[in-house]
Amino acid sequence: MKYGPTTVALAFGVACSFLSISTTDVTAQITQGKPEVGGIYDEEKHHVDLKESNWRLGFGVGPSISTEANLINDFRAQERMYVRRQFGDLIQAEVGVGLHRLSGNDDTPQEFDANFWTFDGRLLIAPTINDQWNPYGFAGFGYSLYRVIDRAQDDINSEADVRTPQTGGAPVLPLGIGVQFKPERHSRIAIDMSLGYSMIFSNELDGMAGGNNASTINGMVSLEYLFHDVVDQIRGTAVN
Question: 123 Cβ partners below 8 Å, 6+ apart?
């Protein structure tokens, strides 16, 4: 059974909502079990609350297009899942896996089509503007495993290289900018929007001899779940 990006995104949204409700229930249970001093809860000494941790889980979908393709007709969908961690107020690190598609026409009527999985790590420079908005820039490095589905092999029209392998792998370099947004200050759900460029260090994905290495321009909208710790604010230690 195959699932499209819309179905996967919906499932991820439901999972985020479930995690959000579950975390709220845990907080309520801990609050109900308040420590007492002489039979009376000491509000001044104990206050159990949620504190945002440095971890977040995200899933995104968006359009992707080859830089050698027709910019109007050859958009393809991409999906990506990632884990991101905050380091201080400026630096974030991320690891992720994505499914991308490369398709289109070159300068002449030469069609090509390929799918590839990308595994990469990224470093984000994300200065804090306020509690809800964070613009950022990113750069990273990874590796793509690709499968060429359709290659231009008409020697009359395209000078195709018929020896191009059907499958292979190549390093990839992602670069881009984006913005993170939380609907509310203490929200457990965030939205991430990004625009990027990925250079794939291989010229075999379009099945054509000569030319430049494959590269794509990518747009993505991601839904993120922000993990929280349940803490005793006086003691400052996580209790769950």
Answer: 91, 92, 93, 94, 138, 139, 140
Domain count for the chain: 1
* Residue partners of 240: CB distance under 8 A and separation at least 6: 26, 30, 229, 230
pLDDT tens-digit series, residues 184-240: 878 889 999 999 999 988 877 765 555 667 788 999 999 999 987 665 555 444 444
- Structural domain range at position 151: 5-238
Total-model pTM: 0.70
Q: How far apart are CA 103 and CA 148, in angstroms?
A: 10
Residue whose pair of structure tokens reads 């420079």 in the numeric block = 125
Residue with tokens 């990925």: 198
Distance CA 31, CA 41 (A): 10
Sign (positive or negative) of CA dihedral 113, 117, 119, 124: positive
Helix or strand run (H / E) with residue 19: helix 5-32
DSSP 39: T
Strand partners, 60: 80, 222
**Pairwise CA distance, residues 16 & 194, whole Å:** 20
Q: What is the CATH number of the domain that holds 223?
A: 2.40.160.20
